[in-house]
Amino acid sequence: MSSLSTHILDTVSGRPAAGVSFRLFQEDAVLFEGVTDHDGRCPALREIPLERGTYRLEFEIGAYFRAGGHVLSDPPFLDVVPIVFGLGEGTHAHVPLLAAPYGYSTYRGS
């Protein structure tokens, strides 16, 4: 089995993004729903055993920035950020998200 972790950073404030709701999918099935902690992480995600395959993380980034007092366009330019990635057998993948109201980036972390 494999494992997964994520870390969300708010590039506007330069701090971890606490309170971001997100979901993990495999195809259309929701495997996990969580919210980031004070450090922009969700340790419980790492406990979900995952098989080799393709997965999708969806981050509710629009709601996070609205809750933080940012005025967003209507509709927001970025509301839900999806990241589709592949996971091998017996590996750990770390999927960081660096987010702002008008852009984001990700990479395979360690």
From TrEMBL:
GO terms for molecular function: hydroxyisourate hydrolase activity. Transmembrane segments: none annotated. Substrate binds at H7, R41, Y107. Residues 4-109 form the Transthyretin/hydroxyisourate hydrolase domain. Gene3D superfamilies: Transthyretin/hydroxyisourate hydrolase domain (2.60.40.180). Homotetramer. Belongs to the transthyretin family. 5-hydroxyisourate hydrolase subfamily. This is 5-hydroxyisourate hydrolase. It comes from Gluconobacter thailandicus.
